[in-house]
Fold this sequence. Notes:
It is a single chain. By secondary structure, this protein is of the alpha/beta class. It has one domain: Alpha/Beta hydrolase fold, catalytic domain (Rossmann fold, 3-Layer(aba) Sandwich), CATH 3.40.50. 41% of the residues lie in helices and 13% in strands. It has 13 helices and eight strands. The strands form two sheets. It has a six-stranded parallel beta sheet with strand order 2-1-3-4-7-8, with helices on both faces. The two termini are 22 Å apart.
Amino acid sequence: MSSPKAAFVLVHGGWHNQSAWDKVTPILEAQGNAVLTLDLPGAGKNTIAPRSLGARPFDLAAFAAEPSPVAGVTQDDRTQAVVALVKKAASLGGGKVILVGHSAGGMTISAVAEQVPELLAAVVYLAAFMVPNGLSLLAMIPHPAMSSALSPGLFLGNPAAIGATRINPGPSDDAYKALLRASFYADVKDADFAEAARQLHSDEPNGGALAPSPITPERFGAVPRHYIRTTQDRAVPLAGQDHMIAAVDSTIGGATITHTLESSHSPFLSQPSALSSILLDISVQSLTDHRESAGAFDR
C-alpha cells in the first residue's frame, strides 16, 4: 500500500482571495493530494468594501479617506483561521501538511508554523514576507532591499487614519491599471489579469501589517522551510526576498531551501504548472525526510 500524501493548505496574499489558487489546485489534486484553501478574515467573501467604492460617480478622494470596514481584523484572526484549516488538512494528509503562503500571506503562515509545528511537513513561502522574530511586514517595506517595489505606488489614503492599506480595484485610469499589472501580474495573460483584477478587494487590515513576527527557533525553526524566489517580481523584489531569507536563517538557524521561478509576483497565474511541480517535489521530499527521521527514531 502506498504511503499517504501530505495535504496542501494554500494561503493567498494581500488583496487577493482563495481564487488565486484556481489553476494550481487541480494540478496538485490530479497527483492525489488533498488541497484546502480559504478566504482569510477580511478578504474575499469575508471582506466589506468601503461604501465609496461603489458610489457613482466615483469620488477618488472620498474613497481614499473613508475608514475601512475591516479595520478591526487582526493577525490573530487570520492565524486562527489557518490553524483550523491545517488541523482539518492533517486528517486528510496522514497527519502532515504542506503549508504555502503567498506575499503578505507569509506573515500568517509564519504564525501558524509557530503555533502548530507538529502538524507541518514543510512551510513554503512564495514571494512572501518571511520576517525575523519581532519585526513586522510594515518594518520590511522601507528596507533598501525593497526599494525597487512598485506596489507602494498603488496605495491610497493614510493607512493609520483609515485602518488599512488600500488599493483601488474599482474605476481607475489607465496609468493606475498599468501600475497594478506591473506590480503583480507583469507576465500574466490579458484574460487572467482581467479576472485577477476583478477578484481583488480594496483593504488589507493594518493588523496583519503591524503584527510582529512571532517565530522562534524551538517551534518555527523545527519545521523544514522553503522559499520560492520570483526573479521578475516588482511587488516583493528579489533583493528583498533574498534579504529576508538571510535574515531568518541567521536568527532562527538552519537553512531555508530555495527554489527559483523566472516569473513576476503571480506565478500561480503565469506558470501554474512550474509552480505546482516545485510544490509536488517539496511534498515528496518532505514526507520522505519525515519517514526516514521517524524510522531512525524508532530504531
